[in-house]
Amino acid sequence: MADIRTRFAPSPTGEPHVGNIRTALFAWLFARHNGGAFVLRIEDTDKAREMVGADEKIFQGLRWLGLDWDEGPDVGGDYGPYRQSMRLELYHKAAKQLVDDGYAYPCYCSSQRLDEMRQEQKRLKLPPGYDRHCRDLTDEERVQKDAEGVTPVIRLKVPLEGETRFNDIIRGEVSFQNNNMNDLVLLKSDGYPTYHLASVVDDHLMKITHVLRADEWISSTPCHILLYQALGYKPPLFAHLPMILGSDHSKLGKRHGAVSILDYREQGYLPEAMFNFLALLGWSLDDKTEVMSVDDIVKSFSLEKVGKTAAIFSQEKLKWMNGVYIRNLATDDFVDRVLPLLGEELPSCVERPISREYVAQIVPLIRERVKVLSEVPEFVEFFFVDELTYDTKILLGKKMDWDMVDVALRTALQVIRGLEIFDEGSLEQVLRPLAQEISLKVGQFFGVLRVATT
């Protein structure tokens, strides 16, 4: 088990999505539980979609959660380089071997022809996929295309009969009929590999033993198995993780809230709470344990307890869990986490630096109410400023207008002024029946008084 090697291989095409980070977390947990190695590899072969600085944001997201890596672009390792754009020669060599051995072929189809093919398939209601137009070109036809200056892509030559099987750790035996599989592009005309070729070559050369990835890749895995066989490689073991859905059971997206792990950091979620929450998206210790430390999760994690059904990302549950972690923080720790936030968010009239001793007196008073750290500046602002302003609209209770508010406040003030004893019992005795006299519900009446008083 000490030889176990997992990897996280993101593309730097945007901020680190919580779904991708969950995959990284499970790969990290499996490696750490088994005393193996966790490898970070940047798959930067899609130059058209690559975003400047995206790789650094990926690093930030992983570090924030405490997911350290044993090998990677910034720490090195025995099997580097760990950026695919620096490994092109390896992919070209593999592609040439596949063509020479008859497992792949050059495809000269133009983008225009491929578009027309797709439109025709759509019109005839045929399943989409390459029609293998260039699969059986003669040597003379290929020489002619090369002479015309057409740069081909390299496609996998999928067998037209039989089936391809593999055993998935989570889903058991999976099989696909070869005649339903597509001749995937392995090497693009710009010289960069697709995921299919590059991931197979790199996972082999980097000695990856277990590939954990989203189940959207399960339909591509048979083609990857064919590639392993054609190149003479031993395949790793595969574990395809369940999808993450939003609370409405649709694919997780921006409408469900933040989707970048860094968004949750900025909103004031604690990394240990996010770690705990993500670990439970598809895995569980039992049917009741929810709040667990990182050490406990590492100790208990196994792929046998990863489910097959989609996991639901609940913002409400995440916020609840974050509140639990905040309430469990030691006061000094709580102060350390909110001081920078207060320095950024409190009004400019507040003297800087913010007094640590003063904040330490305040945080115990708000701890029970805080669910995310970004709420703290609003909760404590009145401790720091002398002039407070409020929008008068907050006096308007449910189903109330300004005349009702005016009557409630004036009548209450008149009655309170006439009290000889100002205490809870006396106020209750005169105010509760007053609500009915002015045709308000007790909740409406007391709500206005509560807002006005505070």
Largest sheet: 3 strands, antiparallel
- Share of residues in helices: 40-55%
The assembly state of the depicted protein chains is single chain
Order of strands, widest sheet: 3-4-7
Q: Could you tell me the strand content as a percent range?
A: 5-15%
- Mean residue pLDDT: 95
Q: Give the helix tally.
A: 17
Quote the distance from N terminus to C terminus: 62 Å
Report the principal-axis shape: elongated
Order of helices and strands: EHEHHEHHEEEEHEHEEHHHEHHHHHHH
Q: Which spans of ≥5 residues are poorly predicted at pLDDT below 50?
A: none
Structural classification:
mainly alpha
| Radius of gyration based on Cα positions | 31 Å
Count the beta strands: 11
Tell me what you see in this structure:
By secondary structure, this protein is mostly helical. The chain has a 3-stranded antiparallel sheet with strand order 3-4-7. A hairpin with a 3-residue loop joins β5 and β6. α1 crosses α10, α15 crosses α16 and α15 packs across α17. 28% of the residues are buried. The model has no long low-confidence stretch (mean pLDDT 95).
Key terms:
three-stranded antiparallel beta sheet; mainly alpha; elongated; 454 residues; two-stranded parallel ribbon
Task: Briefly characterize the structure.
Helices cover 43% and strands 10% of the residues.
